[in-house]
Design goal:
Helix content: 25-40%
Number of strands: 7
Shape: elongated
CATH topology: TIM Barrel
Distance between the termini: 20 Å
Radius of gyration: 19 Å
CATH class: Alpha Beta
CATH architecture: Alpha-Beta Barrel
Largest sheet: 7 strands, mixed
Number of domains: 1
Amino acid sequence: MNTQKIQSVFQTKEDFKAISLAGFLHKERKKDLVMSVDFVHLHCHTNYSLYDGFMSPLNLARRAKELDMPAVAITDHGKAAGFIKFQDACKPEKEPDDAKKKKSFNPAWTKDIKPIFGCEMYLCHNLEGKKNEKRYHIVILAKNNEGLKNVNRLSAIGHEKTAYGFPRVDFEKLKAHSEGLIVMSACINGEIPQLIFAGEMESAKEILRMLRTALLESLVLAVDGVVRKNILTKRP
């Protein structure tokens, strides 16, 4: 994101709670970062996310272990379908008894990764409005058991109010089921980033105020440190 544009929207420390996934660091420093601090990916898709995910929940946990990460999040689009496999995948693996399987067993797969359960939901302003109302991405993460229940509730509501295959929630539903959640403003397809790149700064500030009012301390702004062309994506 353009630094000046960010500063024009978020002028105080209270407005600027951010998670940066090391995007601003030079490539050669990324490995040192992972080795020196407890770095955790909080926005990951698996093969339960069409178009965005390829690896299985098991391989996500294995890769996190290989990179010495203590935890990793699963945030598939609108669904909790991968949660059980993800939870099982994060448990330590035992060496198999079968001789054939032993040959392919890698000790590095002996995990013990803390699973973080979440979803990337589609946020609209009015669930009862037209189905073609514009929708934006928003990420929810469970920080305790009540949060996990609310992730499942919001996912269920989203599928009940689906529009053209996209599970949707609105501000009111998000506020009603925000206990135990961390809510991130998501990727470049979030409403705030889209408004910033469209030059609509006042509208971006208003959405930020609405989210802060609804979510209070649960809201975290995600900063994408990767500069991309054609930033105003038309993807759903």
